[in-house]
């Protein structure tokens, strides 16, 4: 089956529309000012956006949430409880979390999520996979129909497939915004173990049959 519909801003920040029987699930919202483009893409597909899933709370993933929530008042908004705190400007760390600095942009949103996601839950056909490291509460999403992995910022593919546990000289930004690199590397290994058929990252193009490239990225990172 065809993979998710990728919407890219400036060629390097992605969100995705995932087709479901009852409409579309939007995964992330990219940068501020993206709402019109996302809504136009959904209109072109011919299905309504019924769910908005945020993989984590960085500004390049939640930037258009408020505008989309206003345009789509009935759409369910979901994120992990851990990163929902970051949406609400709470940057305190839990007692058992590494004391590393929370890097990257956390602008917060006025929109409050309707649903707090837990590992193993389903959002439509997407299974919630914990993916901490880049942020404390980041998730990936595995399409149970074809094993497409929407990996958020656990991997990037711009400038080659790379984990965000170590800066890729060709595109270092995701790694530079990573909170705890050892956890990010552990997450990358766990996602590789899922044996995805397709890798759909927050930054870069979608990669088909990505396992060998994921293995090479892990070898470089660890």
Please describe what this structure looks like.
The chain is an alpha/beta fold and 222 residues long. It has a single domain, classed as 4-Layer Sandwich (Metallo-beta-lactamase, Chain A), CATH 3.60.15. 26% of the residues lie in helices and 26% in strands. The protein contains seven helices and 14 strands. The strands form three sheets. Strands 1-2-3-4-5-6 form a six-stranded mixed sheet. Strands 7-8-9-10-13-14 form a six-stranded mixed sheet, with no helix packed on it. The protein has a two-stranded antiparallel sheet with strand order 11-12. Helix 6 packs antiparallel against helix 7. It starts with a strand and ends with a helix.
Features:
222 residues; alpha/beta; Metallo-beta-lactamase, Chain A; 6-stranded mixed beta sheet; 7 helices; 26% strand
DSSP strand content: 25-35%
Tell me the CATH topology.
Answer: Metallo-beta-lactamase, Chain A
Tell me the structural class: alpha/beta
The count of DSSP E runs of length 2 or more, i.e. the number of strands, is 14
CATH class: Alpha Beta
Q: What is the mean predicted local confidence, pLDDT?
A: 97
Q: Considering DSSP H and I runs of 4 or more, what fraction of the residues is helical? A: 25-40%
- Described by the principal axes of the CA atoms, the overall outline is globular
Helix-strand sequence = EEEHEHHEHEEEEEEEHHEEH
Widest sheet, order of strands:
1-2-3-4-5-6
Number of discrete helical segments: 7
The CATH level-2 architecture is identified as 4-Layer Sandwich
- Could you name the CATH homologous superfamily? Ribonuclease Z/Hydroxyacylglutathione hydrolase-like
Low-confidence stretches: none
Total domains, how many? 1
**Terminal Cα separation, in Å?**
33 Å
Q: Please summarize the sheet with the most strands.
A: 6 strands, mixed
Radius of gyration: 16 Å
């Amino acid at each position: 089956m065809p993979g998710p519909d990728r919407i890219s801003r400036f060629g390097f920040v992605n969100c995705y529309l995932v087709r479901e029987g009852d409409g579309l699930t939007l995964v992330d919202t990219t940068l501020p000012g993206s709402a019109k483009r996302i809504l136009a893409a959904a209109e072109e597909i011919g299905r309504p956006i019924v769910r908005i899933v945020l993989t984590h709370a960085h500004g390049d993933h939640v930037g258009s949430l408020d505008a989309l929530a206003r345009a789509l008042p009935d759409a369910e908004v979901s994120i992990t409880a851990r990163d929902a705190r970051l949406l609400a400007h709470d940057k305190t760390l839990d007692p058992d979390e590494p004391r590393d600095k929370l890097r990257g942009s956390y602008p917060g949103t006025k929109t409050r999520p309707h649903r707090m996601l837990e590992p193993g839950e389903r959002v439509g056909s997407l299974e919630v996979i914990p993916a901490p490291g880049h942020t404390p509460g980041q998730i990936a999403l595995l399409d149970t129909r074809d094993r497409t992995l929407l990996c958020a910022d656990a991997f990037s593919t711009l400038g080659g497939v790379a984990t965000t546990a170590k800066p890729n000289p060709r595109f270092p930004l995701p790694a530079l915004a990573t909170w705890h690199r050892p956890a990010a590397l552990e997450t990358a290994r766990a996602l590789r173990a899922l044996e995805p058929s397709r890798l759909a990252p927050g930054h870069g193009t979608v990669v088909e049959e990505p396992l060998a490239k994921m293995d090479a990225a892990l070898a470089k990172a660890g």
